[in-house]
Amino acid sequence: MKAAAFIVSCLENERVRFAFGIPGEENLELMDSLRDSSIRFVLTRHEEAAAFILEVERRRESDQVEQLITAAHKKQNAVVGLEDTLLALQEWRVWQLVYSEGLNLRGSQCTNCEALTASDEPCPYCSHAVRAVNDLIQLAAERVFDLEGKVEQVRGPAAGRLKELGSIGAVLHF
Ligand SMILES: [Zn+2]
Fold first, then answer.
1. CATH of the domain at 98
2. Of residues 35 and 14, which shows the higher confidence score?
3. What is the pLDDT of residues 73-116, one digit of tens each?
């Protein structure tokens, strides 16, 4: 794998969604790799423009989290908190997983049905033993991707707001 492709795959793993800059000779390979990725490249000539876009993106994330919380309180196809989110995931209802940046949760995975749970009790779905997992969010995100859903990591004030409710939530199909 070329260095540029590797860099882009690392950025994708970190769920980076935008890259800003000016294409040129010196970053041609990087631009090519970006084009084939899920990351959107935004042409910006000035740093201030990139800062402005970041600010807009922060506001969008805050709006998104507020909408998620409101919908969850009204029980309108949304949940917040780890337990409810994992339950919805198990029921194949998650359309979009939303979590705060830096969230790193331990949990368990059933050794039989692979259900993800927050506790180390036997699986609530099939009663089999569970094994501890360090990367609960990563496993949850992979499951959402399997369902062709979306995963969104929010940062800044949006992350702080979501943190009050367990740092995680989901928009549901039904
Ligand atoms: Zn199970």
1. 3.30.1330.30
2. 35
3. 999 999 999 999 999 999 999 999 999 998 989 999 999 999 99
Give me ligand 1 centre to Cα 109, in Å: 8
| Ligand 1 center from residue 140 Cα (angstroms) | 15
Measured in Å, residue 72 CA sits from the centre of ligand 1 at 26
Quick one: average pLDDT of 6-27? 86
Contact 89, 116 (CB under 8 A): yes
Amino acid (1-letter code) at residue 140: A
Amino acid (one-letter) located at 156: G
Cα dihedral 155, 161, 163, 164 in deg (nearest 10): 180
Mean pLDDT of 140-161: 93
* Residues of the domain holding 145: 60-172
Q: Could you tell me if 67 and 20 lie in one domain? A: no
Neighbours of ion ligand 1 (CB under 5 A): 110, 112-113, 115, 123, 125-126, 128
CB 85 within 8 A of CB 97: yes
> Are residues 82 and 164 both part of a single domain?
yes
